[in-house]
């Protein structure tokens, strides 16, 4: 067991606020064997997938030790290069089981100029064992590309989920992320987008849903450098039982990003008096001609709304489910894959029971 | 096309320097011997001397903050922590030495005393040189005096409250304050007494390479009310000066306190001040804060809502110009049911200045049915200034209503266009927008301070739309 300091914020605040980083005891896997249980769907020669990953250093990332573990000991490397406009979703479906308890994945997605694609990356667990996931996803959206990435975390509540995401957006690129973050005893995500391109656009929508003792630590950073670049971060979550969430969102307007815009909204529904929500929505600004907004809110389900739904014949639990679903719906609309959407809705219902 | 030019604050009045004359100036640095000497000069009782020495030990153990502005230019070996002016404490302005009186005259303190204040305290360097309170307040049992007199004459009251709200181990500069504090005001408002006209303390630091460490202790007893105003300024010198004051407010059950501050330190000042209020059942503390001066400011007033139904409001504005790094904000901890907090913070950055809004809202497990609403807005007036918003929202129970919103941006061209279409010149339109931006703060100030604040944000406009 090793205590690691993870997910440092780009700018520190008072240590007493307990949010500059997260300290976790981590059981590193003793033996890393190849991960065999991966299904890849809908790829062709035009959008080739290789195991050869270029060398890199993350700008942020969760932690150097975890980064080096991926760079030196990954048991699954996947590079996807998009060369055309693809209508079918490319799906990477990782399923942990008794033979595949550890996944250290290194994924690189490159959307070349004028291309379009959706990539779904799904992590799920077959049984109730303790699994370990540490991954890096890097995406490069080149000029005029349109890249849509959906990440689904359905790990069980005994597992650890560590994920570092790093993106770069070139001129007029459109990069959209949807993260469904449900699983893991600890689910720790670092997300960094570098919007260097003029009129580049990045949208990040996240849903998290915590129960029992789950802990989520989300550290989202967007740096706007290109003129008229734009980032939108929307996070909707609900916490049951004694679950806990740290949300750290940073929109950083760098000098030169004239007419850039950035918005972040984080809303947390507290479904128990023991659930805890800690949020640090930062706006950093070194440029005049920009527009930045952030908002956060926390609270329980509205009594009036509950009463209204219950007066229509629903029991309390069903009414709460409906209200949580209503908050999540706008983000769920991003999921066009019906099979996946059904799985997510079922998982929401199961978790709220 | 040229751009709107908003002047930085005219500091002529505040920058008047008197000759550095004093009765006694402690040698620079921070050692137990220096602390003993300050204590001797101030004729401290034994408990206070021991308190100072313990605070120095804590200071030596604590680290500098690992966040916020760079404080590396602060060298305590170059700061004299105690400067006794050439004046005793007076109750008539006529007895105050001419040069010191002239300074306060120019700052408008005696005039304000005549027209709109119920009591005045004036501190020059490390000691209070003038203190007064209206007779009818004395008759009602209100105590308003300098802190040293309070230590001597009300030892039990002081011992019970002194640095209990802000303990010396809170952070390094509170520990420093505990070791070298001097001057400041003590206010006690008895149960049920309403002080309708404000009391004001003004702190002036004249001596170069020195620090001011005044201690303000206010106790508003049950059912009482008070408005207290604090002002501060200093002339500019080449080397840094340090201000590490401490404000402790005890707002007991069903009482009300408004604490207003216009801070206008010189631009060589490191303002590392600490302010905290403990708020009782159904009591309320309101903070109104205008922060214009200082080279570096780290100031985060704090309300601890301990009583059921306790309330707090914070209304503040910061204006950072060239060479200024103002890291200000607010902290509130909800510790009981039905508590509420409202925060409205604004900042303007100009000419390379940096404004940071840093805050904490913590709603603890036992603070059911509490509400908190936070709004912060930042205005950037050029493309080489900086404006950051770093709020922490820590919600530990479900039965709460919490919301936070912030926005950052420049003066909108559409808004200017709209006002101009109604017949205003571009200059007038921009002036109106900036004054409108500051209005929610200035309307909370007594009228003469609102006028001063509007003067501080003086507009000079030229050319077409930028």
What does the model show?
The complex is a heterodimer of chains A (353) and B (466). Chain A has one domain (32-301). Chain A starts with a strand and ends with a helix. In chain A, helix 2 crosses helix 3 (316-332) and helix 3 (316-332) runs antiparallel to helix 4 (338-352). In chain A, the strands form 3 sheets. A 9-stranded mixed β-sheet of chain A has the order 3-6-8-10-12-14-16-18-20, covered by helices on one side. A 9-stranded mixed β-sheet of chain A has the order 4-5-7-9-11-13-15-17-19, with helices on one face. In chain A, strands 1-2 form a two-stranded antiparallel sheet. Chain A contains 4 helices and 20 strands. With 353 residues, chain A is mainly β. Chain A has helices spanning 64-73, 303-310, 316-332, 338-352, and strands at residues 2-6, 22-26, 38-41, 49-50, 76-82, 90-96, 102-111, 116-125, 132-141, 146-154, 160-169, 174-181, 186-195, 201-210, 215-224, 230-239, 244-253, 261-270, 276-285, 291-299. Chain B has 466 residues and is of the alpha/beta class. Chain B has 2 domains: 15-411, no CATH class; 412-466, no CATH class. Chain B is built from 11 helices and 27 strands. In chain B, the strands form 4 sheets. In chain B, strands 6, 7, 9, 10, 12, 13, 15, 16, 18, 19, 21, 23 and 25 form a 13-stranded mixed β-sheet that branches. A 10-stranded mixed β-sheet of chain B has the order 5-4-8-11-14-17-20-22-24-26. The chains are: A mainly beta (353), B alpha/beta (466). The A-B interface holds A 11-15, 17-20, 253, 255, 258, 268, 270-300 and B 65-68, 358, 360, 365, 368, 378, 380-410. Strand 19 (276-285) of chain A pairs antiparallel with strand 25 of chain B, so a sheet runs across the interface.
